[in-house]
Amino acid sequence: MTVEEYERVRRVPTHFLVLPGESHVFPDIERVVEDHDGYVVVEKFGDAGRMAAKLDPRSRATSRA
């Protein structure tokens, strides 16, 4: 994965990259939104999604500008 790929995914505060497989995806708080060779992108939802958005340093930097 390139830095550009990583940054594209992380532009969305609730999206994270994880290894594929059941042990890395927690269906109670996240769902797979993209499937790539070697990794998947999950989206956190509910309380986990709200907390991820609140704590995301990219969002905080943007909101202060």
Q: How many domains, as an integer? A: 1
Report low-confidence residues grouped into runs of 5 or more: none
What shape does the CA trace take?
flat
Q: Kindly, what is the distance between the CA atoms of the first and last residues, rounded to a whole number of angstroms?
A: 29 Å
Question: Looking across the biggest beta sheet, what order are the strands in?
Answer: 1-3-2
Radius of gyration: 12 Å
Q: Total helix count? A: 3
Percentage of residues in strands: 25-35%
Overall pLDDT, averaged? 90
Counting DSSP E segments of at least 2 residues, the number of strands comes to 3
Biggest sheet features = 3 strands, antiparallel
SSE pattern, N- to C-terminal: HEEEHH
Structural class: alpha+beta
Helix content: 40-55%
Which short descriptors sum up this protein?
65 residues, alpha+beta, three-stranded antiparallel β-sheet, flat, single chain, 3 helices
Structural features, described:
By secondary structure, this protein is of the alpha+beta class. The protein has one domain (3-64). It is 40% helix and 26% strand. The protein is built from three helices and three strands; from the N terminus they run H-E-E-E-H-H. A three-stranded antiparallel beta sheet has the order 1-3-2. A hairpin with a 2-residue loop joins strand 2 and strand 3 (39-44).
